[in-house]
Amino acid sequence: MVTPMIPGDQYRVKAGDMAALARAEQDPFQKAEYERLSLSYLRLAEQADRNSQNDVVWLDPLIDKPTGQPQAQQQQQLQPKKHSEKS
Predict the structure, then answer these.
(1) Average pLDDT, whole number, for the chain?
(2) Residues 35/81, Cβ–Cβ less than 8 Å
(3) 87: Cβ contacts below 8 Å, ≥ 6 apart
(4) How far apart, in Å, do the first and last CA atoms of the chain sit?
(5) For a FRET experiment, which of 5, 7, 18, 56 has its CA 20 to 30 Å from that of 71?
(6) 68 secondary structure, DSSP code
(7) What's 33's DSSP letter?
(8) How confident is the model at residue 59 (pLDDT cuts 50, 70, 90)?
(9) How far is C-alpha 66 from the geometric centre of its chain's CA atoms?
(10) 55 pLDDT exceeds 80?
(11) What does residue 70 show for φ and ψ, rounded to 5 degrees?
């Protein structure tokens, strides 16, 4: 069974790929771009690691059940005024 990579590791692999391309590149402008991309992927990896440490669950206040069913809402209905008749 293969365990999927966590997002931070996926970004680190991409960063390594970009660094390898930078080392092999002869054009200085392309080399610099690959180096910038490599650093960007490393920053994304760090952010993904920080995000994975947060156990924040955002819930929609209008959703009542995990199935996504909207919460039943009750509304007050205006009642007609009763006129009292005197006999």
Answers:
(1) 82
(2) no
(3) none
(4) 87
(5) 56
(6) -
(7) H
(8) low
(9) 18
(10) no
(11) -65, 150
The pTM score is 0.59
Neighbouring C-beta atoms of residue 41, cutoff 10 Å: 20
Tokens of 28: 């200085």
Contacts (Cβ under 8 Å, ≥6 apart) of 16:
38
Kindly state the tokens that stand for 34.
């690959």
Amino acid 17 reads D
> Tokens standing for 81?
């005024």
Indicate the Cα dihedral angle 49, 51, 52, 55, nearest 10°.
Answer: 150
| Residue 18 token pair | 């970009």
- Residue corresponding to tokens 């005024």: 81
pLDDT value of position 39: 97
| Angstrom distance (rounded) from CA 46 to CA 49 | 5
Largest CA distance in the chain: 106
The helix or strand, by DSSP H or E, that contains position 84, with its residue range, turns out to be none
Q: Which residue has the tokens 């008749």?
A: 85
Residue 22 contacts residue 39 (beta carbons within 8 Å): no
